[in-house]
Amino acid sequence: MGGQAAVDEVISRFGSACRIWYVHFRDVRGPVPAFTECFRGEGNLDPPAVIGWLMAVGFDVFLTDDHVPAMVGDPSTWADSSSDAYCIRGRADAIGYMQGVLDALGVA
Fold it and tell me: Would you give the distance in Å from CA 37 to the centre of its chain?
């Protein structure tokens, strides 16, 4: 909700105390409450920097994709996302993006 600065603050505060056990990894464009879901790297965050910072504070547990935009051709799409869209193209993009970042950081 507070963009990159808020994410950095949470990672600094809770990550260094080993109090982050699960991360829903997403990116949005715009401020609350007028934000829209977007693909990782197209929104308010610097996803490689976030994952790098998590690794720097010792995070080594569960990182999952979370909320993806619907893509043209996905079945039953509505508004920004749907359960069908989440399970097909958007999810594949999110997982591939995250795997690429982890590979680049040498942690995958």
Answer: 10
Domain extent for 94: 3-105
- Please state, as a whole number, how many other Cβ atoms lie within 10 Å of the Cβ of residue 55: 16
Helix (H) or strand (E) holding 29: strand 27-29
Q: Of the candidates 96, 81, 98, which has an alpha carbon nearest to the alpha carbon of residue 38?
A: 81
Tell me: pLDDT of 20 over 90: yes
At 23, list the tokens: 């991360």
What pTM, to 2 d.p., does this model score?
0.81
C-alpha span between 27 and 4 (Å, rounded): 10
Report the number of distinct structural domains present in the chain.
Answer: 1
